[in-house]
Known about the structure:
The protein is an alpha+beta fold.
Amino acid sequence: MATKLSRDFYARETLLVARDLLGMHLVHAGPEGEQVGRIVETEAYKGPHDLAAHSSRGRTKRTEVMFGPPGHAYVYLIYGFWNCLNIVTAAHGTPHAVLLRGLEPVKGITTTSHGPGLLCRALHIDRSLNGADLLGDTLWLEKPTRYRPPKVARATRIGVDYAGDWASKPWRFFDKDSPYVSTVSAAARRRALAPDQGGVRAKLARK
Length: 207
């Protein structure tokens, strides 16, 4: 039986959480029924000193949930269209979070999920879930019964060039074996998932 991640899992050093989230499942019991995706890409944000973090601008109505207890969802809107899901981490009062950037479909996902906005659209996650307790029964993370260890790699974060030296922090973690990482090209993703090649998901399932 899958094991829901505990509060203690989230209440750790944010870089450790960002790495350890790879291979875990994100579950949303929402309007489309239970939808499940395997996490394959994350980014860590460690405000208030990290200039790439929203919390670097201080405690606001938007960032309030980041200052609260770990294990809650921080959902925000970008470009007036895309919702993004972050996981609040570290100690209560420390405004850290981990952005989920890529999901490998497991159950109930019928649209693309390789990108922070796309995965939220695929799982019908929006700002109504901002502040949701991830130990609840609507949105949660779990270690699957058949956990598949990721091949972990790390790189700099995406889209934070404005943050000066903070932009060069290697705080993005991803599974090198997954074609659902956001930076994989469309051509490479098609090749990896082509039915006549067996598909990456089928190959990995046999390991």
